[in-house]
Amino acid sequence: MEIDQKDKKIISVLKQNSREPIREISKKTRIRPSTVHQRIQKLIENGVIEKFTVKLNNRAIGENFIVLMLVKGGTTDYVDSKILNNKHVKEVFGITGEYDLLIKLKFENVEDFNEYVISFRKLNKEIQSTMTMVVTANLKEDI
């Protein structure tokens, strides 16, 4: 599906507030409401919009301790549901270079993080090494 300027305008408004009413999107983009509705449905059907979500305040929900973890594995497949479905794991990226994965994790505090790391290494014996970096300032975080 090719995304044109009208789609880009609609997406831009939805990125700011995914709950924006069709009429407001119409006013902001100067596109007829019926056209806005049809285009949003088409973007959903074609997988351009995967889901509508919410951006939470990390501090308010007890996830203000953010860690980036680089992971180097062995020759076996070690990325499974116990990694991907853990409540602390927010994003996982396959990367190139010395490490195989970059994992973004969020915790309430350093103690929770420490428990996770110890458990992570015990449960994933095929992982050769990890390097963790604690986020000291959250300058920008998009969803």
Notes on the structure:
- The protein is of the alpha+beta class.
- The protein has 2 domains: 5-45, Arc Repressor Mutant, subunit A (Orthogonal Bundle); 65-134, Lrp/AsnC effector binding domain/regulation of amino acid metabolism (RAM) domain (Alpha-Beta Plaits, 2-Layer Sandwich), CATH 3.30.70.920.
- Helices cover 36% and strands 21% of the residues.
- The chain has helices at 5-16, 22-29, 33-45, 81-84, 110-123; strands at 65-73, 89-94, 101-107, 127-134.
- Strands 2-3-1-4 form a 4-stranded antiparallel beta sheet.
- Helix 2 (22-29) crosses helix 3.
Summarize this structure briefly.
The protein has 143 residues and is α+β, with helices and mostly antiparallel strands. 36% of the residues lie in helices and 21% in strands.
Looking at this protein, list some descriptive labels.
143 residues, alpha+beta, Arc Repressor Mutant, subunit A, 4-stranded antiparallel sheet, 5 helices, elongated
Spatial strand sequence of the major β-sheet: 2-3-1-4
Mean pLDDT: 93
Radius of gyration: 20 Å
Please write the CATH class name of the largest domain: Alpha Beta
Beta-strand content bin: 15-25%
Which architecture of the largest domain does the CATH hierarchy give at level 2?
A: 2-Layer Sandwich
Describe the sheet with the most strands: 4 strands, antiparallel
Span between N and C termini?
22 Å
Q: How would you name the oligomeric state of the polypeptide chains in this document?
A: single chain
Q: N-to-C SSE series? A: HHHEHEEHE
How many beta-strand elements?
A: 4
Helical region count? 5
CATH superfamily of the largest domain: Lrp/AsnC effector binding domain/regulation of amino acid metabolism (RAM) domain
